[in-house]
Every structure is written in structure tokens, then in C-alpha cells.
């Protein structure tokens, strides 16, 4: 039995250097393909987060306009101070009551104006954007303008 095991162990060989290099090259190719794809997914999720913040602002503005029917526009500072929203998300709270981000009351859907940084200096800008326009723009950081 001992001789049989020794004979079997002598025939066993480990990985050669060429096999090891082939595996490393294959892993490198997979990584080169995956890293840019993951970067795009992360950017898309950041853009979607800013758009979700904009939708939240529009919803809070709808509540504000329901309680203040004579108002024609409202900015983020008024919405936060009036407890219509808890957090501004990626949008900076303005210092004055007439600064952007701002929602203007309109019959075809309230219009949102403002911009927010989602990565470094890259921003998503909304110009007279309705809830429908934000939703239909998908992953794009450019919201169509009317």
C-alpha cells in the first residue's frame, strides 16, 4: 500500500508557471471589462438619486401649494423650514427665499428649477422640469427641456 501511494504521489504535479500566468491574464481581462461597467452603474445610481430628490421636492411643493393656494412658487428653504421635507438630499438649501432650487406652480404640472452635484463637479440641472420629464429622462443626467 505504501509503495502504491508513493507511486501515485510521484505522478502528481503542481501548476506550472505558464498555467499560472494564463489564469492571471484571464483574470486581468475580466477585470478590465468589469471595472468600467461598474463605474457606469455607480454614476447612473448617483444620477437617479438626484432625480429622486427632485421628485421629492416636487411632491413637497404639491403639498405646499395645496395648503397655500395663492402661492405661485416655493423654494427649498421654505419647504424645509415649513416641515414639508426633512432633508434636501443632494440639493443645497438656499440662503434666501427667492433663490433656486425653486418650484413654480403651473397648470400642466409644477415646474422645478435647480441643480445638484452628484459626483465631484458634475451636476444634474433641471430647467422647468416636470415630474413626468424627470421620470422619462431615465439614467441620463440631461433632463429634456420644453
Please give a structural write-up.
- The protein is an alpha+beta fold and 146 residues long.
- 50% of the residues lie in helices and 16% in strands.
- The protein is built from 4 helices and 4 strands.
- The chain has helices spanning 2-11, 17-67, 76-81, 131-136, and strands at 73-75, 102-104, 111-119, 122-129.
- A 4-stranded antiparallel sheet has the order 1-2-3-4.
- It is rod-shaped and about 100 Å long.
- The mean pLDDT is 84.
- Count of helix runs: 4
State the shape: rod-shaped
Number of strands: 4
Helix-strand sequence = HHEHEEEH
- End-to-end gap: 86 Å
Helix content: 40-55%
Strand fraction equals 15-25%
Coarse structural class: alpha+beta
Q: Main beta sheet, described?
A: 4 strands, antiparallel
Question: In order across it, which strands form the biggest sheet?
Answer: 1-2-3-4
Average pLDDT number: 84
The low-pLDDT segments are: none
Rg, please? 28 Å
